[in-house]
Amino acid sequence: MTDEDGTCVVVVGQIGRDLVLRTDGLPPVGGSVDVGERWEGLGGKGANQAVGLAQLGVPVRLVGVVGEDRAGDAVLRRAGRDGIGTAGVVRRGRTALLVDLVDGPGSRRLLEDVPPEGLVSVADLERARTAFAAADTVSLQLQQPSATLLAAARLARRRGARVVADGAPDPAVRGELLGLVDVLRADAAEAELLADRPVRSVRDARALGHRLLAAGPSLVALAVPGEGDLLVWPDGDLLLPLADVPVADPTGAGDAFVAGLVAGLRRDPDVRAAGRLAAAAAGATVQRLGGRPDLSGLAPGGRSPG
């Protein structure tokens, strides 16, 4: 699964089974409430991003862990149908379960059962080394262990691939990891962790973006509460306003944003165009229940997302 030039994107991150439940409000203690809508399938930050990339026409390989159980069988079959390469997926233990409870438009609660053995180890990267062979971009979800992230970033660098990181690096390895990263994306909570103080305005985000550029990345994308996403690069910045769309569920918006940004940068080095694709991907995803995107309409020649 590579482009005509033999290249692809490798995503290193979480794979799990998503269970999405829509209810009209939450039950009282000891009570119950009817589920109005239910969906189950492939989920997790890494898998959601890989799905989005595949929908955008990007050849993608996934490196992660699923369990030696029927849930693991099911999510791998789904990934295969989505056109995602899974030769780099390791199987052990039980498959992570992510329960997305949506109790009103734009309101959700996330329950996570992610076993320790579901995290990607350095040894897993070694077993998945062939997945990196054709990578022009390696995207890292920073919820994985620091040693794994450093090893993956170094491997990508040695192969000349662009390194994209989504999240806030652990302070213990932040300096080293940022020195290996080309593109960093952080949501509002992660931006505050990076700044060590609230990031409440575009001005705050711009200042943080320039601090992060000085640490290594060439492009930083930061979510600004109530405003949108700010892209910052050495020669400028661009605010991407929140999409004016009805929000059903914010789950997966960040994963879709990163997928759009990666796809856009591979199509064209124009940062502004890549940012607009990323914002459109996030806007399409929040209109749906669950973290699984439908970005087909944003692919070259694609249909409108449904």
Explain what this protein looks like in three dimensions.
There is one protein chain. The strands form 2 sheets. A 9-stranded mixed sheet has the order 5-4-1-8-9-10-11-12-13, sandwiched between helices. Strands 3-2-6-7 form a 4-stranded mixed sheet. The mean pLDDT is 95. It is globular and about 55 Å long. It starts with 7 loop residues before the first strand and ends in a 21-residue tail after the last helix. It has helices at 45-55, 70-81, 122-127, 129-132, 146-158, 174-178, 188-195, 202-215, 253-267, 271-285, and strands at residues 8-12, 16-23, 35-43, 60-66, 89-91, 96-104, 107-113, 135-141, 162-166, 183-186, 219-224, 228-233, 236-241. It contains 10 helices and 13 strands. The longest helix is centred in the last third of the chain and has 15 residues, at 253-267. It is α/β, with parallel strands linked by helices and 306 residues long.
Unreliable parts: none
Helix content: 25-40%
How many angstroms separate the termini? 25 Å
Question: If strands are numbered along the chain, what order do they take across the biggest sheet?
Answer: 5-4-1-8-9-10-11-12-13
Number of strands: 13
Residue fraction in strands: 25-35%
Spell the H/E element sequence. Answer: EEEHEHEEEHHEHEHEHHEEEHH
- Summed over residues and divided by their number, the pLDDT gives a mean of 95
Alpha-beta content class: alpha/beta
Major sheet characteristics: 9 strands, mixed
Rg result:
18 Å
Number of helices: 10
Shape: globular
